[in-house]
Amino acid sequence: MESRPKFTTANVTVTNADTWYPLPDMTVGEGCDVVIKSKAGNTSAIKVAHDDATSKASPFLLDNPGDSVSLRIKGTTQIVLSSSVAGQVVEVIAEQ
Questions:
Q1: How many helices (H) and strands (E) does the chain have?
Q2: Do 49 and 56 touch, CB atoms closer than 8 A?
Q3: 7-95 classified as CATH 2.60.120
Q4: Taking the model in full, what pTM does it have?
């Protein structure tokens, strides 16, 4: 795959504890990943799930600050984030 000339970034803040927040609507290039990373200053795990009840019941955990996951998925708004502690921040990057 060739290098992409553009990418986009975003930060998502978990304003309220135990509330699910969708990723912003970001364009993701064909065959590219979305990388979701727990911000370095976080104090609690970040829960990553698909926006459905089954996935939210057993989310993927980013246990430590700096942990990340890459997902090859179209439609970033179907990915949701949560934490048991308010104020946690997640960084997102995707090639276009």
A1: 1, 8
A2: yes
A3: yes
A4: 0.92
